């Protein structure tokens, strides 16, 4: 029963019910809509505020590997189309990974060889021409990478879906229980019930609250991020290159992205860091500078220690590394936050997708390793092929 009289009632029956309106849930809803299926998305929050809405917006295509790379390439095309359809900005700015040591350049050479055409080697001067980084040894330009503003994109996609008669998005509507019927599932929500032929549960780190086994398949870490005031590098053109130019990525990404694991030289870089910059490894730093439309920079990210409190040491490290990269004395923090990130509980070195079937016709879908925005739009077609 709909208890809130100013909200429209939920549809009583749909082909697909999606629980969670983060990037994973909306990716499945968009795909179902494109296939002519009726779809209802419910989200417990009043507006986008989950893990997706808390990140900088880097769609990191080229440095993925195997199934994640295939999904990222599909995802890229779908982001561009969705941006046009739903009317939000998708910036085809690419990214530049910046090397400041010869052993880092060697790793990037391996990437250029492995991703012919999609990874372009840069010397230090070319890095400075494309970014606000003044004194790099060299780097690599990844033209396929994209930048989206996550919270704005989620809002636009949800509104666009909801504008179609066969698609509904209900915010402030928590899903509570799921009863399997014959060929369908009864989904009970805080605002009433809906019968769905199939259900996708994409609630991120909350999955264990609905299905214990699915929750046990993933562990939740928290990662710290900062937004800093628009920096003022010495070169006056550099500010503009930051805002409109590529996402700037540090070489700590070597430890995370699948494309680097095949490099013969990445181990040597890690050994040098262990000897000279152990804090980078201790805090699992993943330095990314993502400019926002107002010129501010989202600086991500480092591992938050277990417990309720953010670590000042992690923030300091992020700020120091970002300032060094940009060649400025200091950066002024505008805001600080943390966001959940999932990893596989079994620690297996497999693709980042954790899908379970707790009931017939019901799938939980989680994307681990900080790759949901990069891959979810490419994962959804595969998931729906399996579901319907
Ligand atoms: C610091 C950091 C940096 C990252 N960087 C990147 C990156 O560069 N590239 C990339 O691709 N990914 C990145 N990620 C990962 C990515 O942002 C997240 O993994 C992803 O957004 C998770 O999406 P989701 O849709 O699964 O979850 P969420 O975005 O958290 O959405 C889940 C939704 O489910 C809703 N919900 C929960 N319970 C219920 C319920 N019972 N009923 C209804 N609704 C419910 C919540 O309100 C929420 O809106 C990063 C993550 C972090 C932490």
UniProtKB/TrEMBL annotation:
<keyword id="KW-0489">Methyltransferase</keyword>
<dbReference type="GO" id="GO:0005737">
    <property type="term" value="C:cytoplasm"/>
</dbReference>
<protein>
    <submittedName>
        <fullName>Bifunctional tRNA (Mnm(5)s(2)U34)-methyltransferase/FAD-dependent cmnm(5)s(2)U34 oxidoreductase</fullName>
    </submittedName>
</protein>
<dbReference type="GO" id="GO:0016491">
    <property type="term" value="F:oxidoreductase activity"/>
</dbReference>
<dbReference type="InterPro" id="IPR006076">
    <property type="entry name" value="FAD-dep_OxRdtase"/>
</dbReference>
<dbReference type="GO" id="GO:0032259">
    <property type="term" value="P:methylation"/>
</dbReference>
<dbReference type="GO" id="GO:0008168">
    <property type="term" value="F:methyltransferase activity"/>
</dbReference>
<keyword id="KW-0560">Oxidoreductase</keyword>
<dbReference type="InterPro" id="IPR036188">
    <property type="entry name" value="FAD/NAD-bd_sf"/>
</dbReference>
<dbReference type="Pfam" id="PF01266">
    <property type="entry name" value="DAO"/>
</dbReference>
<feature type="domain" description="FAD dependent oxidoreductase">
    <location>
        <begin position="15"/>
        <end position="377"/>
    </location>
</feature>
<keyword id="KW-0808">Transferase</keyword>
